[in-house]
Amino acid sequence: MHITLQKSKTAKQSSIQITGSKSESNRLLLLKALYPEISLDNVSNSDDSQLMAKALASSSNIVDINHAGTAMRFLTAFFAVLEGREVVLTGSKRMKERPIKILVNALQDLGADISYVENEGFPPIKIKGKKLIKNKVSLKANVSSQYISALLLIASKLENGLELTLEGEVTSIPYIKMTLSLLDEIGVESSFINNTITVKPNTKTQKPKTLTVESDWSSASYYFSIVALSDVGTEITLSSYKENSLQGDSALIDIYKAFGVETVSYKNTITLKKVSENKEPKSFNLVNAPDIAQTIAVTCFALGIACDLTGLHTLKIKETDRLVALKVEIEKLGGKVDITNDSLYLHPSNSIKEMVSIATYHDHRMAMAFAPLALKTPIIIEDAMVVSKSYPTFWDDLKSVGFKITQ
Ligand SMILES: O=C(O)C1=C[C@@H](OP(=O)(O)O)[C@@H](O)[C@H](O)C1
Ligand SMILES: C=C(OP(=O)(O)O)C(=O)O
């Protein structure tokens, strides 16, 4: 379904309830399978979290997680230790192009029985669950932090815990710290010193405990962009957020200050306020927050300002090659973008073509990142329902902050 988006009367003040963090939810759903005593609140209603929950509950010997990267990586580790179970874990066409070898090698080094069904190094994979005895392994840490989180999530159930040595530069560190913090919340002890992470074994039954998932910060990024592109005085309130977030994308608060957006926390809400215009060129290293790169690039394009983004080496292996997708779509709109394997430079520009049809490449973030541009000029978003991967009610919420959407 293609939709046309344009500005209608933007309300000066509006409120949105954003669904739970997909990253926290997918970790906690797995932990709940290992520690059934815990209960969860505000779990994400995203496709990826629903697929994760379904996969954990399924007794089928084929598990298909479609486009869900975290589900693919976390379940690889989960099924590897599920004694007596044999599963083929597969996904979408794109998932079959997203590498998994670093994680599979690490699990095999620990003694797991995993083989490739089609292409070496990529899903689908066949996993025969067994008890893993070894407790030390090293892996490359500069490709995806999800491999590391996957190992950490099962670590406390290994007989001797786990000692992980991270090789090379570590990417997306806040996601690793999120995993360790959630383990801590359920009573699993760990340490992260230099490049070594140690997780202690934990076989004790936990006290029943409810963990409340914070709302999703990556989803909040689209409202930061909307406020940045709106008139001074515009406010949007988002819930439910916590004072000390585990999500690295909460870096949005500092990043969008540079666009004249102030964030005020009150109880469990954050209010984004446009306080000033700032058209200075921007420069950010996003190695710790890769999922907000598209949002920031489009904000800058809509404002006509130059933008230099670095630390983007993981973008090539996400739902699509996000660097190429950004370049192609921004250039269709009349912009100019230079990309390397890990950076993007957007040239300043002074016009945006009208009614351009934005391709979304099966990538929810392409659809959501380009949507705020409709505040400047009408645009078409192709395959709009792609947003359900992380944020199923995105288009309804956009209507409520004053966008006109037609099919
Ligand atoms: O662990 C997680 O929940 C995630 C880690 C990041 O991936 P990489 O570590 O591959 O960059 C991020 O892009 C993804 O959306 C979610
Ligand atoms: C990269 C993402 O997800 P995943 O890797 O879990 O598919 C994302 O949501 O932007």
Q: Structural class of the secondary elements? A: alpha/beta
Q: What portion of residues is helical? A: 25-40%
* Heterogens: shikimate-3-phosphate, phosphoenolpyruvate
Q: Tell me the number of helical segments per DSSP (H or I, 4 or more residues long).
A: 12
- Give the full name of the CATH homologous superfamily of the largest domain: Enolpyruvate transferase domain
Shape verdict: globular
What does this structure look like?
Helix 2 packs parallel to helix 3 and helix 3 packs parallel to helix 5. Strand 16, helix 9 and strand 17 form a beta-alpha-beta unit. The strands form 6 sheets. The protein has a 4-stranded mixed β-sheet with strand order 20-21-1-22. A 4-stranded mixed β-sheet has the order 2-13-15-14. A 4-stranded mixed β-sheet has the order 4-5-7-6, covered by helices on one side. The radius of gyration is 21 Å and the shape is globular. Helices cover 30% and strands 23% of the residues. It folds into 2 domains: 211 residues, UDP-n-acetylglucosamine1-carboxyvinyl-transferase, Chain (Alpha-beta prism); 191 residues, UDP-n-acetylglucosamine1-carboxyvinyl-transferase, Chain (Alpha-beta prism). The protein is α/β, with parallel strands linked by helices. It is built from 12 helices and 22 strands. The longest helix has 13 residues. It binds shikimate-3-phosphate and phosphoenolpyruvate. Phosphoenolpyruvate binds next to helix 3. It comes from Jejuia spongiicola. Belongs to the EPSP synthase family. Pathway: Metabolic intermediate biosynthesis; chorismate biosynthesis; chorismate from D-erythrose 4-phosphate and phosphoenolpyruvate: step 6/7. Catalyzes the transfer of the enolpyruvyl moiety of phosphoenolpyruvate (PEP) to the 5-hydroxyl of shikimate-3-phosphate (S3P) to produce enolpyruvyl shikimate-3-phosphate and inorganic phosphate. Its EC number is 2.5.1.19.
